[in-house]
Amino acid sequence: MKLYCKLVALLLCLGVLLLLSLFVGSADEPPPKGAGGARSLPVSSGPGGRAHPLLAHFPPVQAAAAAAAEEGAAAAAAAAQISKREPRLSRNPGKRSPARGKFANVRRPGEQKHLKELPSLQWMHLAVVACGDRLEETLIMLKSAVLFSYRKLKFHIFAEDSLKPEFEKKLREWPSSYSKKFEYSVYPIAFSVGNAQEWKKLFKPCAAQRLFLPVILKDVDSLLYVDTDVLFLRPIDDIWSFLKEFNSTQLAAMAPEHEIPKIGWYSRFARHPYYGTTGVNSGVMLMNLTRIRNTQFKNSMIPTGLMWEEMLYPLYQKYKNYITWGDQDLLNIIFYFNPECLYVFPCQWNYRPDHCMYGSNCKGAEEEGISVLHGNRGVYHDDKQPTFKALYEVIRDFPFEDNLFQSLYYPLQSKFLDTVHTLCGRIPQVFLKQIEKTMKKVYENRVIVHVGANYRY
After folding, report:
1. Terminal-residue alpha carbon distance, the chain
2. pLDDT digits (tens, 9 = 90+) for 179-229
3. How far apart are CA 195 and CA 140, in angstroms?
4. Sheet strands (E) in 172-244
5. Which of 124, 164, 296, 417 is most buried (CB neighbours < 10 A)?
6. CA nearest 311: which of 225, 191, 193, 189?
7. Which residues does residue 154 pair with via DSSP β-bridges, in sequence order?
8. H helices of 129-254, where?
9. Pair 369, 378: CB distance under 8 Å
10. pTM for this one?
């Protein structure tokens, strides 16, 4: 009887254990597939089993199949491991907080690249004086400046009152891709000392205005002045860099009037003092206005120095019967007495018909090409120097948004074929070398760098 009771008790215990194992095993198994499909396991990330709010943006994780009933504990552990796996990232994850950490600057495919803002650089200031029929010529000069320059420009346009609305109208018509590269101001013609009518008629209409730029533009530190008949064949950034070459006494830069004294105008005909052996040409003049305003200039009128503004009119009165080229002659006189104040840059930065019409005599242009073309003598508007005229017309006719090579460089090559009967036309490489190099740089900067960067991530 005692043995029988022991057997019954043992069987009951075994049965209870069997029932318990079956119960635990069935609880660990995933629910069977039904009409509603498989259910998802919630992803727990803390006490209480609440899902983290960020995980709501990701698709749920499917539970793995459970093992056999006898391996219920192992199956439960496996399922727990699966539930802890990181969720699969969605291609449209919705709104995320701003990126942080070392991957914060990684750009995803198709995302627009935002270029890091460069440090605020000093603006380049360009001044020009336009009177009479110089509207188109001035606009073509400004166009050449904008086409090739990298840094932003501020144009200071001094013009007769009748030309002001014309400048504003034409500049507003330029496409935004170029107009965003510059700002401009149009000023009336004004002379702070002396007789305004005398100054206005000195040499060419309004040309003497350049002498008063340091007085009028009091808030401008440095400035590049050019005549209306100038064309830039490389970025203004490059000529602007000459400011860094100035020593402690230099405050302006100009190119020589001629390279060969024997055929230079000043060395043969001048009746007044002039700088150096050939004089300087003021059609392209780089100035540190701050230094000009603060310097006392030696002169032939009084033993002591004179400030810039107080020197101009007495100087004109003394030499007005001896000067031919107006304000340029006055500048030559000033720097004759103050040679330490002038920086002389090479002839390719102010290349004129005189450099080729008697035979090529600008070595710098032969080696590097023309950097700044100066079409004085009215050569853009007659047929005496068709090489200069060809460059002017091609830049004038170039549509802003067109390809530089197809719509500017190749037409220029074609036009040069018709100029080989002239001495200037026989050296096309001098005219083409620098502008070709400049256009390649512009192309690389605008197309290869900017477009290619949008595909790097």
Report:
1. 86
2. 999 999 999 999 988 888 888 878 777 889 999 999 999 999 999 999 999
3. 32
4. 182-187, 222-226, 230-232
5. 124
6. 193
7. 125, 183
8. 135-148, 164-172, 176-179, 196-200, 213-216, 236-240
9. no
10. 0.72
